[in-house]
Amino acid sequence: MMVDPQERSVGNPRIEVFFAHQRRQYEPGDRLAVRYVVEGCEGEMIRVIEHSVVWYTEGKGEEDLGVHFFERITDRGAVASAGRDGAFETTLPASPLSYEGLIVKVRWCVRVRLFFASGRDFVSEHVFLVGRIPPARLPPRGL
Amino acid sequence: MLPSPNPFATRYTRPGAMQPLDAAGRPVHAAEMLGRLDRLGGAAAIIGPHGSGKSTLLCRLADAVDAGGGTALRLRLRDGRDGGRVLLAMLRARAGSVVLLDGWETAGRIGGMLARTIARLRGCGLVVTAHGAVGLPMLVRCRTNVALLNAIVDRLPGRSEWYGRLIFPADVAETFAAHGGDIREALFALYDRYERRLRDEGRAGREGREADADGAGPGSGIQEIVGGFSCPGAPGRNLR
Question: What's the CA gap between B102 and B61, in Å, rounded?
């Protein structure tokens, strides 16, 4: 949902994610390992952190979504640490592969979500590629 | 290079992803509308033609109900077979919740009467979307104009990176006119124009590079062109 920044903004948080693979290009079965750094949350108490690896469709139709990996950190000590920087990893599945279609696209992304004690939350998404399917080409004009 | 998102994809334009705007392109204040719903007795209709923003507004009202501590029950009637499911959900609704029903006409006359009766008996508010008068007070009438479509386009992610390069002011006016003011269809048409021009741009760039490289092999089109702009879902985007 595109929300008003005024409604849910918390300071000026920013999450930088670092992928182990150059160019964020992975193959099915690869180990996806990421680490991240959280900035701009000084003075805000983080209550829960969620890490996930998901795929979703993007295009003209209804969106589809699959959660491949999910973990929720609620332990106070772990949250305090992961609220500054953290890491997680998972093995990527055989499918779906990233795809740049005309009507529909399949995207993979890493998400880090912070839930603040104030009740607000902040999500950071970072796209990466699985597989090497060439992007769809346009049909010749006139078809 | 990572792929670029299409800002006209439903991910960014579906009801719930966009903020509802009035005909002048200003944000609609859902809380004011809920106040009006109360004054109308708790049951009312959002009326307007296809693609005029009814579902977008309904979504926003549901969020406002939830944000205000109430309970919003979101229901959608796609066809007549959904009727039983919708009525059952209303029967199970918590007393005092607000039922937001998209696609009222699909319920038919008898289904509509049943839904109204159940809402009243359960003490629930009821907001429906419809294309014309449905025997409920009108909460708001949705209308469209090209200024509204322009305002929507202005708010799409990464605008500075594609407006004037892949999508032009004339595209907005043309697609609005071509689809009779149906904003949803106009956005789909803009999606197609964006895809075509992005690929055309990539092809042109590739051909230029091939010429420079004296016959180097073709690249992979779209992935060579744009590294993605800052928007929900784009590489490295921080969502709020």
Answer: 12
